[in-house]
Amino acid sequence: MNSTPVPDTPEAYGRPTSCGPLIVDLETVPRQNRGDRTRERPLPPDLLDDPDATAAAETAGIENLLRCWVRENNLVRPTGPLLRIPLKASGAALLVPVLYWSPTGWHRFGRPTLEGGSATAPPADAVTVAALLGRETGQRESADLVGRVADSVRRTATFVAERRTSPGPADETDLFLTAEQSLLFGHPLHPTPKSREGLSDAENRTYSPELHGSFPLHWIAVDRSVLAQDSAWTERGRTLPAELVIARLAGTLSHPDGTVLLPLHPWQAQELMRRPAVVQLVEAGLLYDLGPYGDHWHPTSSVRTVHRPGSAAMLKLSLGLRITNSRRENLRKELHRGVEVHRLLRGGLGEEWQTAHPRFDIVRDPAWLGVDTHDGKPLPGFDVVIRHNPFGPGDDAVCIAALTAVRPRPGRERMSSRLADIVTALAASTGRSTGAVAAEWFLRYLDHVVRPVLWLDGAAGVALEAHQQNTLVMLAPNGWPVGGRYRDNQGYYFRESHREALERRLPGLSATSDTFVADSVTDERFAYYLGINNVFGLIGAFGSQHLADERLLIAAFRQFLAKASALGSPLPAQLLNAPVLRTKANLLTRLHGLDELVGPVDTQSVYVTLSNPLHSAGT
Question: What percentage of the chain reaches a pLDDT higher than 90?
């Protein structure tokens, strides 16, 4: 890495424009700081491009494990080309070639070997690395980790092999769906991003977005005596019951009198019908299994949320598969939360927000259906969220995880991300350097996506769990960011310090959703999700994909945060001033056997201390 310091003042690398956001002009920055040096010479071979899909998947799995280990142990950059990871529990060490060291954590590694091993011994595979690292932590779930790493790698290999021959769905006019089905490798800092414990190979093909899966919904009819629902879904000034919105989606499906239709994920339906409490309701004539029916729906990046092009609604279905760290069955408090956030925004807050930031909004979850037991308690596994579908065929709405994800394209030797394709095309069309375009793209993103999220926290005390899969950027036809959306009824933090003001806006707020959180916990989580996962993750993608110098983007982020402090959110000052930050540790969370949807918000995940890149990256 070049030792020339990155300019760290606005005058050194940016200029304000008449429309407000800072536009970077890197043509005046010395070439060694532009971040496009690697575009001036051919890039070295990338192991993710290995013709053998299994080898490519192994590379991804190993890199994920090593990135987790480096972050969760706060390791510093080695002085040479090898990172040595001591393994005291095994009496050994891993030697890892460092291909790219990222100030924000998106490192690139070669295949590791055991120190002192035979020169002819093959490099360690993902399962071996998982076993060694799991043993080193001494946690009880290390054996489970090994199995799930193997499952994740195997499924990833299937996805890569498929996409190399079938790049997209038959109809790519639905830009939103195309983006949602493009995450082949998953979260770059998760040890088992594509593990789906419980899915057979045939089910994997049907239910996986990466394989362009689609399926009809499985329908049941629920007697009104055990039906639960709420709705703030409005049309033409009239609130529609959740059952009516669902009935429209079901079309002409007939059902017994006195019952209401409820959709299920097909995998979930099979699993539910074996549960004793459900069998009792069926035998009592309170639930009727109607089977699969209707048009096909398409899984999005979360696997359990399904989309049907042209439909007014998406459905967030309960799905008992363990995906990443959690079994994805909706919790009733999350359903209440989605409705009350919609009511809160509709009650005036949304208008204030739109006045300040007209191109950003929340994808609303204004209605839901579920099943209760005889005594009125929620029966897990049935709850379904009815989500607005605000995206038409021409709306290029891309979650940041999909934007930065590398994927194979037939006819190309190298994998590339949508982000890389956009930046490269903009550089070619404007005649500017790749680094200059990348920096301007990044600053436009901060203005259109990050600034509105900070406004909501500062003005209302509502912090969003805005990680890369929950955050969508709206793109212009040429690829520049022009707006954004947030989605997820799980991911809201109402600051305890704003309780009185928020309850004035919506009396009874959080009575059933359990959304108020201590400010100290909110600060920690908000800094991780928006600062570390989202923005640092985006910076890491620019750097690791040879699009920009991360140190320059970090300097630009500093300047943005200094100005954003005026929005009233404590996050900018926290990110600027804290020498260390708390970050979610996905590897340790998995090794502790935690389900991130269960229990109090402050104990659902393992958090560790990380050196703040805003302090250390420029040195």
Answer: 81
